[in-house]
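Quick one before lunch.
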Amino acid sequence: MRAKPIIRVARTADAERIGELDREWTPILGRTARFQMAASKGRLLVAELDGDLVGYAAHGRFFGYDFLELLAVQPAKRRQGIATALFRAVESRSRSGKLFTSTNRSNRPMRRLCERLGFLPSGAVENLDACDAELFYFKEVEVHSASGAQE
Ligand SMILES: CC(C)(COP(=O)(O)OP(=O)(O)OC[C@H]1O[C@@H](n2cnc3c(N)ncnc32)[C@H](O)[C@@H]1OP(=O)(O)O)[C@@H](O)C(=O)NCCC(=O)NCCS
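Model of the coenzyme A complex:
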């Protein structure tokens, strides 16, 4: 069943809660400061269903282009299109026309999601995590405000 989440920009006050959820929903610890930083720049999006926070995505910059860097969905709500909705919201905010993202080679759900959304493989970086390369993906997206690479 496809969900129709409401996607909104997170407030700075949401970042602490998202940090707690992140510890429950992903194996990665201690990212609250990154959520706070993203929220302070208006670069943290949340997905809500019936008033519950069910997903989040933080986006930033990468060599002057857009980069979706932190993404997770509540385990009980996966495979309902929530990450897809968050990706679409990040795409619609692109200022550069190029959206990058990355994930570990071992993360099959994220790799499948990227392929499903039309991202193209864009190289790999070894040695960030031991024995689990970081795979980069790229997608050309429509520009909705100022164009061109920045920063
Ligand atoms: C990766 C993740 C964000 C996907 O969220 P989601 O809301 O379940 O994704 P969607 O429902 O939008 O999936 C869209 C498509 O992606 C692919 N996909 C998503 N999860 C998949 C899985 N577990 N296995 C295979 N394909 C998958 C499918 O093609 C799916 O379409 P379908 O359900 O019609 O087959 C979620 O699994 C998650 O939070 N994982 C833990 C955190 C994480 O790994 N984040 C990414 C870090 S880089």
